[in-house]
Design brief:
2 copies of one chain form a homodimer. Chain A is α/β, with parallel strands linked by helices and 418 residues long. Chain A contains 16 helices and 17 strands. Chain A folds into 3 domains: 171 residues, Molybdenum Cofactor Biosythetic Enzyme, Chain A (3-Layer(aba) Sandwich), CATH 3.40.980.10; 79 residues, Alpha-Beta Plaits (2-Layer Sandwich); 155 residues, Maf protein (Alpha-Beta Complex). In chain A, helix 11 runs parallel beside helix 16.
Chain lengths: 418, 418
C-alpha cells in the first residue's frame, strides 16, 4: 500500500512554519506497513489542490490531506473536495453536537454560524472523530484510492491518526511488514564507514535497504526490511546487524530507533549510581542542555560551570592561574585542570571539560579557530584530547559536544569493565 | 518567478527526520521575491526523481533540489541529474582542491576514491561553492528553467543558499519587490494582540499582508508587502509600523527580520559595556546556550553556573542553606539569592537565575510541576517573579527561557533609562 501526503497551506510555502505533521504521519503509517511515496506541500488555491489530488490519485492507494479545514475564508479544502468528488456538503449531527459541546466547555459561549459550518461534511465522507477540535477527519473512497482529509493543527491531527485512521487502515487493508533497525555510530565519518562495510553491504539480501544518516561526527545506519514474511525479515535484520559488529562494533553506541548517545549515557549513569558534572567553555552550555532536557537528569547530574571569561576559570573553578599563563587558556593543561576541578568541586564520579576557540574570531588565546580540547574526568584520572573541529562556529560547538559524549561513554564503559 | 523545492531522501518519507531545509529555503527565496509554488519530498529512487524533475520543470521557473549528494551508494542525485540533462560527470579541479583541503585540515587523512568522486559534477553545471562540505551546489539551466542541486546537510545548504544562490538569482533575474518587516513582541498572547490591533489590521493597504507567528510567549508579527514600486512598499510598511507603536509599543522588543531577543540583549550589553552571568537550575543551560551560540559572546558574557543538585546551590553558588531549608529550593527567596550570588561571584552587572520544577515528576521540592521562579540581578537590586509555565517539560524550559530574556531586557532598559 502506497500513500502520499498533501499538506495544504501558504504558511509552509513561505517558510513560516516547519511541516512536522508529515514526519509524524509518515512514521505512524510506516509502522503498519504503509509506504509514503511522496509528500507534497501546496498553497490554499483551488486549482492547485485539484491538480495535486488528481496526480496523487494516479500515483498511490492512499492520499492523506492535511490543512485548510479551519472556519475562516482562506480554508477551502472541504469545498474543493466536494468539487473533486462531484459531491455536496451535508450537516453531520454528531459533529455538530461535538462542536457545541467544545464551545460549551472551553469557550463558554454559544457557537456562531461560522462554527456551525464545521459540521458540514461531504455526503460521501465517513467522519474520523476529532476529539480536540471542531474540524473532523474525513475518509472518502473513490475507485481504488482512499482520500483522508484532516486538520493541520498538530495535536488534533495526531489524535485522529492514532485513534481512528490507523485502526481503520489496519482493519480494512492487507499490508506488508516493514521493519527498521537503526545503528548509532560515533567518531568515524560516513565515507570511511562505507569503505569498511562495503562487502557486508553488497551481501545484504534484496529485501533489506541500508541508509546513512550523518550528523556532526555521528552517523546513523538505518536498515529497512520489507516483505510479507515477518520471521524472514526479523532474521534478515538480525543477521545483518550481527555481521556489522566485528566490522564497526567499536564505534556502535546504540541500536534503537530514537535513542541518542546522551540518552545511552544517562541510562548507564543512572543504572550504576554514578554522577556527572560538567565545565564547558567553548561549548557554552550545549553539553549540559543535552542532559538536562531529558527527564530524570537530577538523578545523576550534579551541575555545570560555564566559565566563559578566562578569569572565571581560575576564580570560581579554581584552575591555577599559572597554568593558564604558561600554557594558554586553550590547552591540554587547562582542559585537564578544569575536568579535575569540576570533579572535585561538584563531588562527581565523572566530569567533562571543554575549552577551545569556536570562532569566528580568536578570543583570549592564539589557538587556531576550531581548536577544542576535551577532557574527561574519571574515578581513575583525566583523559584529554585535542581536535580541530571546523571553521564554522555552531558546527564546532556541535561536533565538540558529540565528541565529548563519545569520549565520556568510552570512559564510563572502561570504568565498568565493558 | 515561481520555484519548487524537491527534497530527495527516504529519511523524510519514513519520518526519521523533519524537513527543516524547505522552510529555510522558502523564507530566503521569499525575501528576494521568489514564490515557492510547491514543495515535493521524494525517495532516493531514480525514476521517481526523473518524474519529479519533469513535473516541476512544467510548473516553475526554478527547481531547488536538496539531498542525495553524499559519497555513499544511496546517494544517486548527481547521476540522475546527468540522465535527466543527457549529461556526464567531469572532474572539477576547484572542488577537488577544496575536498582535499577539508580532509587535510579536519579529517587528517588522505582522501579516498569515494571522496575524490565528490569533485565529479555534470559538465553542464556551474558550481556553487560549499564552504563547509565536500558536495558542491550545482546550477544547471535548461530552456527557461534553472535547476539547483544542493546537499541536504542543513548548515552546508544554508551557506550555499545565502552566499551563492541568492546573490546569483538576484544578479540574473528580475523579480517583483517583496519587503518583510518583523515586529518581535513579548509577553502577550496572539489572540489578545489580534484584538488590540484589529482596527489597525483592517486598515492595512491591500499590498501588505500580516501574519502572526506565536512561539512560547513570544509573538512575531510579520508584515509582507509585494509590488513593483519599491518606494510605495517602503512607505506603506513604515506607516503601518508607526501605527502599531501606540497600540502595542510596550511589548515590542525588536524589529528586524531574524533578530531575536537574545541578540537584542547581546547588542545592548556590548554597546554599553555591561556584563552578564547566569545561574540556571530548571532551565539547565538553555539560557546560556542561547547567548554562547552567538559570536562575540565573550565580550559581555562572564559565565554560568548550572547548580542542578540542590546541595550545589549552597556549596558552590553560596546560597544560604537555611534559606533553602526554610523556603524550599523552588522559591522566590532561593531564586533571588541565586541571582545575587551569581552577580557577586562572577562580578557581573546583570544576572539571571532560574529555579523550578519542569517535571514530569517532582524533584527536591513540593512545588507544582511547571512552577518556575525567575530572578534578575541588576546594578540596583533583584527582581523575582513566579510562573506556572506548563505541564510539559521542554515547553516549560522553553517558556522560562523566553520569559527570562524578556525580564532581563526590561531591567537593562530600565537601568539605561529607556
Amino acid at each position: 500500500m502506497k500513500a502520499e501526503i498533501i499538506t495544504i497551506g501558504d504558511e509552509i510555502l513561505i517558510g513560516q512554519i516547519i511541516d512536522t505533521n508529515s514526519a509524524f504521519i509518515s512514521k505512524e503509517l510506516n509502522k503498519i506497513g504503509v509506504d509514503i511515496y511522496q509528500i507534497t506541500s501546496i498553497s490554499d488555491e483551488k486549482q492547485h489542490i485539484l491538480n495535486a489530488l488528481a496526480e496523487a490519485e494516479k500515483r498511490v492507494d492512499l492520499v492523506i490531506i492535511t490543512g485548510g479545514l479551519g472556519p475562516t475564508n482562506d480554508d477551502i479544502t472541504k469545498h474543493t473536495l466536494c468539487e473533486y468528488f462531484n459531491d455536496h456538503l451535508v450537516q453531520n449531527i454528531q459533529v455538530l453536537n461535538h462542536v457545541e459541546a467544545l464551545f460549551d466547555k472551553y469557550i463558554k459561549s454559544p457557537i456562531s454560524e461560522v462554527n456551525r459550518q464545521q459540521a458540514l461534511i461531504p455526503s460521501k465522507a465517513t467522519v474520523l472523530h476529532n476529539e480536540f477540535g471542531t474540524a473532523p477527519g474525513m475518509w472518502i473512497q473513490q475507485n481504488n484510492t482512499v482520500f483522508v482529509s484532516m486538520p493541520g493543527v498538530p495535536f488534533e491531527m495526531k489524535s485522529i491518526v492514532s485513534n481512528h485512521l490507523i485502526p481503520k487502515l489496519q482493519q480494512e487493508f492487507e499490508r506488508p511488514f516493514i521493519l527498521h533497525k537503526t545503528i548509532l555510530t560515533y567518531g568515524v565519518g560516513e565515507s570511511r564507514i562505507a569503505e569498511i562495510i562495503e562487502d557486508w553491504e553488497n551481501k545484504l539480501p534484496a529485501f533489506i535497504k541500508l541508509a546513512y544518516l550523518p550528523n556532526l561526527g555521528r552517523v546513523r545506519l538505518r536498515l529497512s526490511a520489507r516483505g510479507t514474511d515477518k520471521v524472514l525479515l526479523e532474521k534478515g535484520i538480525a543477521t545483518a546487524v550481527e555481521g556489522l559488529s566485528p566490522l564497526i562494533g567499536d564505534i556502535i553506541v546504540g541500536y534503537d530507533h530514537d535513542e541518542n548517545i546522551e540518552k545511552v549515557i544517562a541510562n548507564i549513569l543512572t543504572a550504576n549510581n554514578l554522577s556527572l558534572a560538567i565545565a564547558e567553555s567553548c561549548t557554552g552550555g550545549k553539553i549540559t542542555q543535552a542532559f538536562t532536557r531529558m527527564e530524570g537528569a537530577s538523578v545523576y547530574f550534579k551541575g555545570s560551570m560555564i566559565p566563559y571569561a578566562t578569569e572565571i576559570k581560575s576564580q570560581i573553578l579554581g584552575v591555577d592561574q599559572k597554568i593558564i599563563a604558561d600554557e594558554s587558556v586553550v590547552s591540554d593543561a587547562v582542559a585537564s585542570a578544569m575536568a579535575a576541578q569540576t570533579k572535585k568541586l561538584f563531588n562527581s564520579d565523572f566530569s567533562i571539560a571543554t575549552t577551545g576557540n569556536a570562532g569566528p574570531t580568536k578570543g583570549d588565546s592564539d589557538a587556531e579557530i576550531g581548536t577544542v580540547f576535551i577532557a574527561i574526568g574519571t574515578p581513575n584520572g583525566i583523559r584529554c584530547e585535542k581536535f580541530i573541529m571546523s571553521n564554522h562556529r555552531q558546527r564546532t560547538i556541535g561536533k565538540a559536544t558529540n565528541k565529548a559524549f563519545e569520549m565520556l561513554l568510552e570512559e564510563i564503559e572502561k570504568h565498568l569493565g565493558k
